[in-house]
Write a structure and sequence with these properties.
six-stranded antiparallel beta sheet; about 10% helix; about 150 residues; globular; 2 helices; mainly beta
């Protein structure tokens, strides 16, 4: 069979964003980000395969833990809003993450909390205030009917 070229698509550096349903003032768009941008890590197994005597038994999980990392420009007004939000309440609820491609649908995280702010250097050489939030991402919805 002859080689067939598959177009790789396009990543749009300015497309990725984060929206907070209950706290729209915390929404993150490209203009508020350093080059590190937005990162999403889904953690754990969507399905565990449990040993049996002669096989493995599938045990689908209803959710995965999710870590959202946002590298916000510290000199922007949004950095101050995150500082105030953390001082007031870290519980922020439903969050939607739009990736850097239109091929992937948005990721919706539930029960999100602002968890930590990475160490910041105040020597005028680093622009980032890196905020990490955690929540959960539903998986196996066809199995559980949710």
């Amino acid at each position: 069979m002859a080689f067939q070229f598959t177009p790789p698509g396009v990543l749009n550096r300015l497309r990725a964003s984060v929206t907070f349903q209950n706290f729209p003032e915390l929404n993150v768009t490209a203009g508020f980000l350093t080059t590190e941008g937005i990162r999403l890590a889904l953690e754990g197994n969507a399905t565990d395969l449990l040993p049996a005597m002669v096989s493995l038994v599938s045990s689908p999980a209803p959710y995965l833990s999710a870590s959202l990392t946002m590298s916000i420009v510290r000199s922007s007004s949004l950095a101050q809003l995150y500082k105030l939000q953390i001082e007031n309440t870290t519980l922020v609820g439903l969050v939607t993450i739009f990736p850097d491609t239109d091929v992937l649908n948005p990721f919706i995280l539930n029960n999100v909390a602002l968890e930590t702010v990475r160490e910041m250097a105040f020597a005028g050489m680093e622009a980032a205030m890196v905020v990490t939030a955690r929540g959960y991402y539903n998986v196996n919805t066809g199995f559980f009917g949710t």
